[in-house]
Amino acid sequence: MTLLRGRHIVLGVSGGIAAYKSCHLVRRLREAGAKVDVVLTRGARKFVRPVTFEALSGRPVRTSLWHPGEALDHVALAREADLVIVAPASAHLIARASLGLADDLLTALLLARTGPVLLAPAMNDSMYASSATQQNLQRLVDRGWRQVGPATGPLAEGESELPGRMSEPEAILAHAVRLVRSGGPLTGRRVLVTAGPTRESLDPVRTLTNRSSGRMGYRLAAAAWYRGAEVVLVSGPTAVPPPEGVRVRMVESTREMETCVAEELPAADLLVMAAAPADFAPVTPADRKLERQAGELTLALGPTGDILSGTRHLRKPGMVAVGFALETGNAVARAEAKLVRKGLDLIVVNDALEPGAGFEVETNRVTIIDRTGRRSEVPLQSKAAVAEAILDEVEGVLGGRTTTVSRDPA
Predict the structure, then answer these.
(1) Does 364 participate in catalysis according to the annotation?
(2) Are 123 and 91 in contact (CB under 8 A)?
(3) Of 109-118, 141-150, 158-167, 237-246, which gets the smallest average pLDDT?
């Protein structure tokens, strides 16, 4: 997804072994559509040569205040960039920035900066924990700067269970996207998303489930967080990595999912029910493994709870509710009936039999229907792009306006 298309990012790299990760960060920022200018401190050049960053960014690398013709680069870059990222931000760089020093290009740029700055600290865990570093960071946070990490994990000197390790490039990218894209109708809203399948126990070994991978719900949770929302994701069993910044509650059964939704729903401004909970469960699960036997095995199944209908009374006034309808025939008519029956604002429809859409694939094609019957067709594309299109429609409902579905390919 080109989530940063047309955006200008300045990446400041200070001296630290984590500078090698910044190479990957440049590539990820460019893949997201950003123009990237890299500024290296003298210490950073000890770890990674400027030519490496020039090759990855496709642009000249800035290293000094004193290059002929570049005397005002620090002011121009500070003004023009949509976001300045410092990764890694060493203890020394953080200290100099907190004091307002401007003795090299990067610190001069930071002092001239009035827009958003994102710091990714990286240092020894004891250095990070020191009161001096914490006070310096607090001063920068008080100025409006944002911080991602540090994480725990291996450091240059060995394993550590304490923070100090620079966050991974994917996490830094996610926070960068959120900083740049926040400010729309979803900013500050509480969003509840459900995702994945549920499992109903047949016995202690076997379950009744479906083919949902959870990808669509996870992409929606990430996309809402990018837009500035506070997101809770209630997820059934899935192998999809949790989205950055999203609070995840893992569940197993449909009843557990309904309980979680009931707990979270009263505070939600938006519900996106993208999960595929099981519709049936064994009436009497066996407490021991069912042994193989000759002939047929008959199972008594009963209906599970309808989460959307069962929690409808918990929706606060003005909350927007979005449902999904995965069908295998007459999909639109079935979805329109479900939208009315369950009191939804939008319903997202797709055909489980269509190649490239539905379960166990990275792509999807959907039709979005609103309360007036208006339909928006979203063509086959990545589920991340489809998530953006769905949230465009949601923001139209929240803003009381008509939106155009995004057709930006991944």
Answers:
(1) no
(2) yes
(3) 158-167
Report the distance separating Cα 348 and Cα 367, nearest Å.
6
- Please compute the mean of the pLDDT values over residues 343-356 and round it to a whole number: 86
**What pLDDT does residue 400 have?**
64
Residue (of 33, 319, 309, 59) closest to 191 by Cα position: 319
Mean pLDDT of 328-335: 81
CATH topology agreement for domains 8-181 and 190-399: yes
Q: How far apart, in whole angstroms, are the C-alpha atoms of residue 404 and residue 116?
A: 29
> Lowest-confidence range among 41-55, 115-129, 340-354?
340-354
Q: Domain spans of the chain?
A: 8-181, 190-399
pLDDT of residue 69: 61
Kindly state the average pLDDT of the residues 70-82.
80
Is 270:190 a contact under the CB 8 Å cutoff? yes
Q: What is the CATH number of domain 8-181?
A: 3.40.50.1950
pTM, to two decimals? 0.89
Whether 226 and 180 have beta carbons less than 8 Å apart is answered as no
What Rg value do the Cα atoms of the chain yield, rounded?
A: 25
Specify the CATH class of 190-399 in words: alpha beta
Please give the pLDDT value at position 402. Answer: 40
Which two structure tokens, joined as six digits, stand for 256? 């557990």
Name the least confident of 2-6, 96-100, 248-252: 2-6
Out of 124, 136, 210, 330, which one is annotated catalytic?
210
Contact between 405 and 389 under an 8 Å Cβ cutoff? The reply is: yes
pLDDT score, position 1: 60
